[in-house]
Amino acid sequence: MKIYSFFIRPNLPPELEPLRELAQNCWFSWNWQVVQLFIRMDPVLWEASYQNPVEMLSRMPQQRLEEMARDDSFLANLARVYEMFQDYQKQATWFAREYPSEGQPPCIAYFSCEYGIAEGLPIYSGGLGILSGDHLKSASDLGIPLVAVGLLYQEGYFRQYLNNDGWQQERYPENDWYSMPVRVELNDKGEPVKIQIKMNGEIVHAQVWRVSVGRTPLYLLDTNIEENPPRLREITRSLYGGDRERRIQQEMLLGVGGQRALWTMGVRPNCYHMNEGHSAFLAIERIRIMMQKRGMTFDEAVEMVWATSVFTTHTPVPAGNERFSTELMRKYVKPITDEIGLNWNDFVALGRVNPSDEREDFCMTVMALRLSSLSNGVAKLHGRVSRTMWHGIWPALPVEEVPIRNITNGIHTLTWISHDLRELLTSYLGPKLNEQPWDMSIWDRVDRIPDVEFWRTHQRRRERLVFYARKRLHEQLERRGVRGETLEQANSILNPHALTLGFARRFATYKRCNLLFSDPDRLHRILSDPDRPAQIVFAGKAHPQDMPGKEMIKTIIHYSNEDRFRQHIVFIEDYDINVARYLVQGVDVWMNTPRRPLEASGTSGMKAAANGALNLSVMDGWWDEAYIPERMTTGWSIGHGEEYEDEKHQDTIESEAMYDVLEREIVPLFYERDRASLPREWIQRSKSCLKLLARYFNTHRMLMEYTEQMYLPAIEAHRRLSADEYKRAKDLAAWRRKLKSEWPKVSIASVKMDNGTNRLTSGETLTVSVEARLGQLAPGDVAVQLYHGPLNAKDEIVGGDAKPAEYVSSRDGVHLFRATLSIRASGRRGFAARVIPNHADQIHPFMSNTVVWE
Asked: Is residue 725 part of a domain?
């Protein structure tokens, strides 16, 4: 049976036509005024549509639409909100003010495998996707010229439900794109934009869809179209589903297909940002384009790709970095390398820490690091961990100099703070909160908010969380077939006035989601104190194949079903953006218990802090830099940043520390009230969360750092290297070929301290002469440096700095360089002489492992 499909748009009266545009732009996801419009039309349908305005309009009875078109009050409100939206599109932005451009503006392409933008667009699984969505929202607010690329998953990530024993079950509802804020991208002829990519000898067709995120376009590729046979339509069926072959197909589509989609639409980025290694095949596709369309050699194309690529690594867990077998890589990628004449072994070496180890699988993270001049971790601690983790790619460098910097993650604040708090902040902080969110000085005004108003606002949010948790628990129990008294108890669990702790995240073993239950009896005493009660709201999903993670959820469910915990512990199923919003906006304390240093950043605690919640966390990820022991004004730490070899011993120590903090500090402080029944000290700490944490741990600050430290240098490199038919890129490649040929001849002949002694007094200077042999390289082709700093007990330089030496003269193939060190500190210090490549057009000298030490 052949079915012919057609799509019927809602017949909106002309007066309501602006609703269509407001529904199709995800600007609504961080602007409560838009949401209020749809709630006013039909609050029940709004919830039934999963807070998706496009679906809601498609399901709205025509009679109701006609009624709203005659409602003067509603129309006036609609006109006001639509004017706000239009003003937003036209208003001056941070990027336009700071970096005005003449002629064609630059373009940054951002690639990620998932995006968490709104409840009604389920193409995300967790933190990586939420970060990507917040990245796009801040790019829109700041006016950064960014386009994003991803995949359109027919099922998205799984929906979670629990059976009677607390075991996680998964279901995979299919998305109806015609009822979501996504539309088919059309070309100049009004036809859908489509691309092709060859995989394992078959042509895969993909259609491009567009999501508007404020000013920022997000392009999503979809293989579920009639041009493909069923097995190829499955490529974009589910996020993180299927076997290894499905995964490499998805990542080929994202990287190679994503670049082809941009070129098909006439988008020519100057800078490419790969968010995690899933999109690293983008680099090889860019090399192919440079070689075939620009007539460049492989080496010349690599120079362009390397200089204009930005890469963000996220997970410090080795298993979280995507790896493919050589056989699978040969099956899918070798046709591209053969097409451009690239030696297969040379290509595979790009994805190995040890290029010569044929037993090592191909790692997407390694390839992205090798082909990106600008790489970063997502927190200060994570940057240090990443430099150690990937030191093997640059073994000749000190760990501190491994070219992976850190830009700490943030959140899109206006998406995550409650509308109650946003209204309160706007009243006392002023309009800049909404109109110029990049101005961080506005957070200094938080102290203007009267304590009573601040606390009253938070109490309303806690009450809303409690009522929401009761409603969800009642639905969960009813679905499992629970009846009678147990079902009725769901309507009274939790206390809207009690200290409320929140714990929600992906249930991976290293996150230790069950650490709270290390001593159930002690936990019960803390929670059930009649004068100072406390309660915990849990949420989170385990990966469908993660059995230990599922066991953790089951354990929590079993405890929550015990009579002694029933009134104090709730697990909300199917953790998503909507559940997260209720939690971070309503809890008093946000808990996080990862096994240090395995948490890359973590952003849920940032969302809670932006709502005034205090954090209780292990010193890992973002909290390692957010927690200031001397102040202790924004939360508490579990331990002091120790790392243990014995995990059981670690769990024992840190669970005891957690209980101690809860009993001795958190609970007493929360219930310490003045005559007006206000917890004054607690309120001051909540305000400190906004003043100290919300002002820094946000994606506006993060995007400004990406722009200034990563995007603009890459854009400038693109401008410089592409000028005059890529002449400087070709010259740079020729210089690097010469460098590679002559580098084995480079050596340090001698090092001499001109002072004649190694005993100095603080304040003196030390002059050092270095003689180097350079083969056929000129002195200008290299930089001679003294790497100097304090020595540890192993006579290793720690936290060193590089002091450049100046060229003095040459004689008989030996080149003299000289440097002067100013001695400021006392104690044991040391230096080592080295030679590194030097060229005006390289972003940094460590593209390859070319360092010669004495």
From this structure: no
- Residue 7: its pLDDT value, please? 58
* Full domain range(s) for residue 46: 14-90
Same domain? 247 vs 301: yes
Q: Mark whether 319 and 184 lie in a shared domain.
A: yes
* CA dist., res. 766 & res. 752, Å (int): 11
CA nearest to 579, candidates 589, 592, 570: 570
Backbone Cα Rg of the chain: 29
End-to-end CA distance of the chain: 77
Phi, psi of 669 (to 5 degrees): -65, -40
Q: What is the pLDDT of residue 687?
A: 97
372 contact partners, CB below 8 Å, separation of at least 6: 274, 283, 306, 309, 310, 311
Which tens digit of pLDDT belongs to each residue from 275-334? 999 999 999 999 999 999 999 999 999 999 999 999 999 988 877 799 999 999 999 999
Same domain, 236 and 255: yes
d(CA 162, CA 170): 8
- pLDDT number for residue 458: 98
Q: What is the 3-state secondary structure (H, E, C) of 117-131?
A: CCCCCCECCCHHHHH
φ/ψ of residue 221, rounded to 5 = -95, 140
Question: Could you tell me if 387 and 400 are in contact, meaning their C-beta atoms sit under 8 angstroms apart?
Answer: yes
Contact between residue 835 and residue 782 where contact means Cβ atoms under 8 Å apart: yes
User: 74 and 34, same structural domain?
Assistant: yes
Q: In terms of C-beta density within 10 A (0-12 exposed, 13-18 middle, 19 or more buried), how is residue 634 classed?
A: buried
DSSP 508-566: -GGG-TTGGGSSHHHHHHHHT-SSS-EEEEEE----TT-HHHHHHHHHHHHHHHSTTTT
Other Cβ atoms closer than 10 A to 821: 18
For residue 81, count other CB atoms closer than 10 A to its CB. 20
Burial 683-701 (b: 16+ CB within 10 A, else e): bebbbbbbbbbbbbbbbbb
pLDDT of residue 757: 63
Average pLDDT, the chain: 94
Six-digit token string for 189: 């002829």
Structural tokens at position 249: 């197909």
Domain of 498, CATH number, reads 3.40.50.2000
**Cα–Cα distance, 417 to 375 (Å, whole number):** 30
| Residues 142 and 252 occupy one common structural domain | yes
Alpha carbon distance 843, 854 (integer Å): 25
Could you give the CA distance from residue 765 to residue 670 in angstroms, rounded to a whole number?
Answer: 57
CA distances (Å), 283 to each of 278, 372, 393, 729, 797, in order?
A: 11, 9, 18, 16, 36
> Would you state the pLDDT for residue 1?
64
In a domain, 720, yes or no: no
Residues of the chain with pLDDT below 50 are none
Q: SS3 for 12? A: coil
Phi–psi pair at 437, nearest 5 degrees: -65, -10
- My answer on whether 436 and 394 are in the same domain is no
Are 512 and 617 within one domain? Answer: yes
Nearest partner of 577 among 99, 37, 132, 246, judged by Cα: 132
Chain centre distance of CA 635: 23
Percentage of the chain exceeding pLDDT 90: 90
CA gap 414, 81 in Å, rounded: 16
Beta bridge partners of 748: 772
Q: What is the sign of the dihedral through the CA atoms of 178, 179, 185 and 187?
A: positive
**C-alpha count within 13 angstroms, C-beta hemisphere, residue 826:** 2
What are the tokens at 343? 């030696």
Predicted model pTM:
0.96
What is the chain's percent helix, strand, coil content, to nearest 5?
Answer: 45, 20, 35
The tens digit of pLDDT for each residue in 473-515 reads 999 999 999 998 889 989 999 999 999 999 999 999 999 999 9
